[in-house]
TrEMBL record:
Transmembrane segments: none annotated. This is Dihydrofolate reductase. Residues 4-181 form the Bacterial bifunctional deaminase-reductase C-terminal domain. SUPFAM superfamilies: Dihydrofolate reductase-like. PANTHER family: 2,5-DIAMINO-6-RIBOSYLAMINO-4(3H)-PYRIMIDINONE 5'-PHOSPHATE REDUCTASE, DIHYDROFOLATE REDUCTASE FAMILY PROTEIN (AFU_ORTHOLOGUE AFUA_8G06820). GO terms for biological process: riboflavin biosynthetic process. The lineage of its organism: Bacteria, Bacillati, Actinomycetota, Actinomycetes, Mycobacteriales. It comes from Rhodococcus triatomae.
Length: 194
């Protein structure tokens, strides 16, 4: 069965973006960048092509994101950031009452994210990547099978937390992999304890 994997970059104080939604404080230079190929399916399609990285579609087959995460690329004309994956954008206000087939393999929906994830998990294919943001992660916390946290040695002070405040119950995960780099970035993978 497919797993839901929350793979996300975070600051030391647990934020996935700064106070105004900016994510450009995360370092894009250094030895941790060599780890990108391991999870190449989680790179935007155009960025992978620019870097000469092949996206095999073997780790992730679908990506989920909230509207604000998706909208980050719109000012630059990026309307389909992950064309190599099935893309699901969740929004309560930007829809026509039914799922909208967007550009290049993208659906904007107001459906319950839990229902969508449970349907996707029953389908054959590679895992499902939860790209962001914090509100969507909080809604899906009980469906998350793995967390891959790329922790950067930065403090944001405030911003968008990895999990928005919510009434979810404590969950236990066990560490299954940990990679540290000279840049101070650490990539740690956790699997849910069942």
């Amino acid at each position: 069965m497919r797993e839901l994997v929350y793979y996300v970059a975070v600051s030391l104080d647990g934020y996935i973006a700064g106070p105004e939604g900016q994510f450009d404080a995360f370092s894009l230079e250094g030895d941790h960048m060599a780890d990108l190929e391991r999870l190449a399916d989680a790179l935007p399609t155009d960025a992978a092509a620019h870097l000469g990285i092949t996206q095999p579609g073997t780790r992730f087959g679908a990506v989920l994101m909230g509207w604000n995460t998706y909208a980050a690329g719109l000012p630059d004309g990026i309307t389909s950031p992950y064309r190599h994956l099935e893309q699901f954008v969740f929004s309560r206000s930007r829809h026509s009452g039914t799922d909208d087939d967007g550009p290049e393999n993208l659906v904007v929906t107001d459906r319950d994210p839990v229902d969508v994830v449970r349907e996707l998990k029953r389908e054959p294919g590679a895992d499902i990547w939860l790209c962001g943001g914090g509100n969507l992660a909080a809604q899906l916390v009980d469906e998350i099978d793995r967390l891959i946290v790329k922790r950067h040695p930065k403090l944001f002070g405030s911003g968008i937390p990895a999990f928005a405040s919510s009434a979810y119950r404590p969950s236990s995960f066990e560490m299954v992999d940990n990679r540290t780099f000279e840049t101070g970035v650490a990539v740690t993978e956790y699997a849910r304890r069942r």
